[in-house]
């Protein structure tokens, strides 16, 4: 079996689990990066090399149903619990000897919070970016039954790249520009985002509504935490992030990026990444 530092994929014949696609860069303290819904490990293209260059071993995976990881045919497998099992099995297979920092976004943050609750001895720190922890955070349009039904059908898988790209371009247009930027998201990010939509299984849209309410369990999480979010988030209610800071007992720093929406790590990585690196250096 290939070692964690040599492999970028773990296949079913190596694990008693579906295929898990991942990348790894750097040597040092372990850091796990977990993307959100309909995204991929490319969410971290701007952060991962910076982590590696600062003396960390950074790992980023494609969650179940996303990117190049396994895409089960059964819709019943697309639950938060199913994604968690896929994620947890991957970490076990890496055979990391020391607790890891989890850096995660949106749905990935929900998975990371569950992991910290169930496997606290395996987690040293948390970086949460626009974290999803309660269905009440969702924008009303996302909770609408008709939208849920549409997204969970195979029609989504047949949607061409250009249509996804048009949607991404329109929704990322910068209506509040004061620096000449026409879009909140850079062109290469918009291209990758549209590609990730086309690669994902339509089953992933069932995952969101299987999230258990984590609110009452969050005070159990003792790890030092960095909480970051985009103030213009149209997916999750931005007011829910300061509320989360009050629930977690060991939040060290919070920061809202005023011009960013749901993906500040891709919107302005040059502003977000220093917060992450400064936090990681604390107590190092």
Helical proportion? 25-40%
Q: What structural class do the secondary elements suggest?
A: alpha/beta
Task: List unreliable stretches of 5+ residues.
Answer: 1-16
Shape verdict: globular
Text of the CATH class: Alpha Beta
Mean pLDDT: 85
Assembly type: single chain
Using the CA coordinates, give the radius of gyration: 18 Å
- The total tally of domains equals 1
Main beta sheet, described?
Answer: 8 strands, mixed
How many beta-strand elements?
8
CATH architecture: 3-Layer(aba) Sandwich
- Fraction in beta strands: 15-25%
Fourth CATH level, the homologous superfamily: Alpha/Beta hydrolase fold, catalytic domain
Order of helices and strands: EEEHEHEHEHHHHHEHEHH
What's the CATH topology name? Rossmann fold
Strand order of the largest sheet: 1-2-4-3-5-6-7-8
Number of continuous helical runs: 11
**Termini separation (Å)?**
32 Å
Per-chain topology:
Blueprint: E1 9-10, E2 20-25, E3 29-34, H1 48-53, E4 56-61, H2 80-94, E5 100-105, H3 107-118, E6 123-129, H4 140-143, H5 145-151, H6 155-158, H7 161-171, H8 187-199, E7 225-230, H9 240-247, E8 251-257, H10 264-267, H11 269-281
Parallel strand pairs: 3-4, 3-5, 5-6, 6-7, 7-8
Antiparallel strand pairs: 1-2, 2-4
Helix pairs in contact: 2-3, 7-8
């Amino acid at each position: 079996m290939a070692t964690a530092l040599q492999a970028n994929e773990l296949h079913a014949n190596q694990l008693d689990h579906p295929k898990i696609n991942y990348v790894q860069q750097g040597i040092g303290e372990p850091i796990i990066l977990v993307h959100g819904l309909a995204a991929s490990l490319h969410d971290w293209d701007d952060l991962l090399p910076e982590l590696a260059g600062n003396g960390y071993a950074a790992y980023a995976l494609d969650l179940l149903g996303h990117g190049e990881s396994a895409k089960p045919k059964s819709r019943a497998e697309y639950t938060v619990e199913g994604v968690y099992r896929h994620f947890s099995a991957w970490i076990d297979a890496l055979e990391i000897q020391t607790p890891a920092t989890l850096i995660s976004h949106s749905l990935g943050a929900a998975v990371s919070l569950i992991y910290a609750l169930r496997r606290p001895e395996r987690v040293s720190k948390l970086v949460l970016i626009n974290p999803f922890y309660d269905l009440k955070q969702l924008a009303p349009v996302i909770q609408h039954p008709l939208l849920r039904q549409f997204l969970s059908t195979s029609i989504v898988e047949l949607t061409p790249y250009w249509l996804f790209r048009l949607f991404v371009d329109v929704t990322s247009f910068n209506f509040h520009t004061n620096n000449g930027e026409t879009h909140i998201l850079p062109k290469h990010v918009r291209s990758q985002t549209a590609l990730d939509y086309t690669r994902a299984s339509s089953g992933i849209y069932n995952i969101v509504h299987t999230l258990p309410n984590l609110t009452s369990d969050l005070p159990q999480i003792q790890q030092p935490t960095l909480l970051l979010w985009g103030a213009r988030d149209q997916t999750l209610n931005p007011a829910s992030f300061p509320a989360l800071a009050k629930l977690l007992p060991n939040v060290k720093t919070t920061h809202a990026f005023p011009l960013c929406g749901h993906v500040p790590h891709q919107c302005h990585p040059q502003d977000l990444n220093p917060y992450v690196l400064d936090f990681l250096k604390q107590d190092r």
